Automatic annotation (TrEMBL):
The keyword Secreted does not apply. Keywords: Cytoplasm, Glycosyltransferase, Magnesium, Metal-binding, Nucleotide-binding, Purine salvage, Transferase. GO terms for biological process: GMP salvage; guanine salvage; hypoxanthine metabolic process; IMP salvage; purine ribonucleoside salvage. Coiled coil: none annotated. Its main location: cytoplasm. The lineage of its organism: Bacteria, Bacillati, Bacillota, Clostridia, Eubacteriales. Belongs to the purine/pyrimidine phosphoribosyltransferase family. Pathway: Purine metabolism; IMP biosynthesis via salvage pathway; IMP from hypoxanthine: step 1/1; Purine metabolism; GMP biosynthesis via salvage pathway; GMP from guanine: step 1/1. Its cofactor is Mg(2+). Its EC number is 2.4.2.8. This is Hypoxanthine phosphoribosyltransferase.
């Protein structure tokens, strides 16, 4: 079965905003390098686009966490499906995520990663849905604040579909 999807943020809008955030991060980390943590699977498209825009040295690692399964509601339990390959000690770490919704995933992840002794730990997200927050999360870089709707595209899925859309769309359920 296929759902209707309408455009919320066009490809051009998303790419323009990622370039802006990339410039801001490059300025903020000037003279340093940044260790990007891509939160799989949703964060993969944003991480690639953002990394290409950074003008500072970049290293990359990947972590996979899951709490939504195939549902539009979080299960409430965050599971580490794949851990990082490298230690974080002494590194300037920037977590790159597709969306902060309830905040459960990122409040859990920030706590876990903080204990690994990074020099600094910051968070960058493509989308933020502040209305839905149940856990406090300090977000350092936000590309777009969005209303309380289930969105897909640019890495975000509905039951594993639509991650490859080059724009952000709303699923009409
Ligand atoms: O703020 P929250 O309510 O925790 O929701 C945000 C998280 O949920 C989604 O991941 P999901 O668990 O669906 O895994 P996926 O990235 O593999 O799709 C999304 O990619 C975020 O990681
Ligand atoms: O709006 C959303 N869309 C897709 N995945 C998500 N995970 C949390 N919120 C969302
Ligand atoms: Mg998902």
């Amino acid at each position: 079965m296929s759902e209707k999807v309408h455009v919320l943020l066009s490809e051009e809008e998303v790419e323009k905003r990622i370039r802006e955030i990339g410039e801001q991060i490059s300025r903020d980390y000037e003279g340093r390098s940044v260790h990007l943590i891509c939160v799989l699977k949703g964060g993969v498209f944003f991480t690639c686009e953002l990394a290409k825009r950074l003008k500072i040295p970049v290293s990359l690692d990947f972590m996979s966490v899951s709490s939504y399964g195939d549902d539009t509601k979080s299960s409430g339990v965050v599971r580490i499906v794949k851990d990082l390959d490298e230690p974080l000690e002494g590194k300037d770490v920037l977590i790159v995520e597709d969306i902060i919704d309830s905040g459960r995933t990122l409040s859990y992840l920030m706590e876990v990663l903080r204990q690994r002794g990074p020099k600094s730990l910051k968070l960058c997200t493509l989308l933020d849905k502040p209305e839905r927050r149940v856990r406090d999360v300090q977000v350092d870089y936000v590309c777009f604040n969005i209303p309380d709707e289930f969105v897909v595209g640019y890495g975000l899925d509905y039951a594993q579909k639509y991650r490859n859309l080059p724009y952000i769309g709303v699923v009409e359920l």
